[in-house]
Amino acid sequence: DQSILCEGSIISDSRIAHSLVGNRAIVRQGADIERSIVMGAREYESETGERHEIPLGIGRDCRLKNVIVDLNARIGEGCVLVNEKGVQELDGKDWCIRGGIIVVPRDAIVPAGTVV
After folding, report:
1. Cα gap 25→71, rounded to integer Å
2. Strand order of the sheet with strand 67-69?
3. Phi-psi region for residue 45, left (φ > 0), alpha (ψ -120 to 50) or beta?
4. Where are the extended beta strands (E) located within the chain?
5. pTM, whole model, 2 decimals?
6. DSSP per-residue letters across 16-43
7. 23-61 pLDDT, tens digit each
8. How far is residue 29 CA from its own chain's centroid?
9. In terms of C-beta density within 10 A (0-12 exposed, 13-18 middle, 19 or more buried), how is residue 38 classed?
């Protein structure tokens, strides 16, 4: 809904509204993304390459609202990144909030089930 989905993005049965999904971004089933920017990835993960516990992109059943996700970030399943309390400034291990917007930096790994 009123979003831009860039070339090579892979989106599986998800809701995306008022957002931008960048090149080679992977959004898994059940994700709900609103008013966010998901930068994508420099390249797809190789089946034979290095294995990570959390795959590249947005995990299943995640909810993102007012979030900027930088390149090559990994967001685990069931994460809720919405800043319901309206916090303006805060630093987490793999994320931060600046001006009320959640930012997931480049190459960050947000563990499954994280709630912000």
Report:
1. 9
2. 4-5, 20-21, 37-38, 67-69, 101-104, 96-98, 89-91
3. beta
4. 4-5, 10-11, 15-17, 20-21, 26-27, 32-34, 37-38, 57-58, 63-65, 67-69, 74-75, 80-81, 89-91, 96-98, 101-104, 109-110
5. 0.93
6. EES-EE-TT-EE-TT-EEES-EE---SS
7. 999 999 999 999 999 999 999 987 666 778 899 999 999
8. 13
9. buried
Q: What is the mean pLDDT of the chain?
A: 95
Longest CA–CA span in the chain (Å) reads: 42
Strand partners for 111: none
Q: Report the C-alpha gap between 72 and 105 in whole angstroms.
A: 9
Residue 80 in contact with residue 50, Cβ under 8 Å?
A: no
Residue 18: what residue type? H
